[in-house]
Specification:
Blueprint lengths: L6 H4 L3 E6 L3 E6 L4 E7 L10 E11 L13
Length: 73
């Protein structure tokens, strides 16, 4: 599910952006959610935890709105 597209490309078509301390989530017009940053508490919900910065990663589909909290999207 990872896609290493440059940020300026993935931001095209963004309809919502939500950020917390160490990560960002982007909702696109096609209903996909993309995230990047730290995943130390499992924020991305992709089955792993790492404090290393994750590249831009597709984390969900068929989404209509997003919100972030301290350790979740």
């Amino acid at each position: 599910m990872k896609d290493n597209k440059p940020l300026e490309k993935i931001a095209i078509g963004a309809i919502d952006i939500s950020a917390e301390n160490y990560f960002v989530a982007i909702l696109k017009t096609d209903g996909t959610v993309w995230g990047f940053g730290q995943n130390g508490h499992g924020e991305f919900g992709i089955g792993s935890r790492t404090y290393d910065k994750l590249p831009l990663t597709k984390i969900a589909s068929n989404v209509s709105q997003i919100a972030t909290g301290f350790s979740n999207i």
